Amino acid sequence: xxxxxxxxxxxxxxxxxxxxxxxxxxMSAQGKIVLGYKPIATGSQExxxxxRNKDAVTLQKSSSISYPLAKITPFALSDEDIFTSExxxxxxxxITAGLQFMRLEADTVVVEGCDGWxxxxxxxxxYSEWVVQSQMPVVLVVGIQEGCVSxxxxxxxxxxxxxxxxxxxxxxxxxxxxAHYGETxxxxxxxxxxxxxxxxxxxxxxxxxxxxxxxxxxPLVGQSSLAKxxxxxx
Length: 234
Prior knowledge:
By secondary structure, the chain is α/β, with parallel strands linked by helices. The chain has a single domain (4-227), classed as 3-Layer(aba) Sandwich (Rossmann fold). Helices cover 38% and strands 22% of the residues. It is built from eight helices and twelve strands. Strands 2-7-1-10-11-12 form a six-stranded parallel β-sheet, with helices on both faces. A two-stranded parallel ribbon has the order 3-6. A two-stranded antiparallel ribbon has the order 4-5. The protein is globular and about 45 Å long. Its EC number is 6.3.3.3. Its cofactor is Mg(2+). Substrate binds at residue 42. It catalyses: (7R,8S)-7,8-diammoniononanoate + CO2 + ATP = (4R,5S)-dethiobiotin + ADP + phosphate + 3 H(+).
């Protein structure tokens, strides 16, 4: 069983939170206790009762346990650019501790990333380094729009080259007017060995909808064994 995995995207604003919601709902429907975790989030707001991040709120509402927002997103940044924000030197240790605590509470923790796979948190350090250190398997979210085929292939190649297991990918139709949608999906499927786990249609207010029906998690059964074997071989 997958105890935790990381959700990354081909870019920012491709629907990682919506896909994370769908994953949480789908696993919850299988009887699992699930928690969403977004260690670092940008675009947070300073309110009278504290810092609030809309992605963290979506994850909170999609989880089996009503976790405090401060635990779901310990680093809720107001700046839209993670690279320009000041983060502690022991950032990886802190977010690892948060993940380990959540794993004690849940069967599976869905860890949502920030922006794309190569997002920098310092001039010389990427967020993906933490995922590699933790040997977390990855689900890739592909925002279906112009240019997404090359973005998807480059992201998948980078993930695999970094030595972590690519569990699968999810297509999120963020451009409802895109021509040749079916051909685009077929081209990505042909060139990424990891399975397609689902297709999310263009939906208004998707963060408040039931999303599990758009996913098929059956391929993850075999993939989770591969991820475990890869981790054990490190």
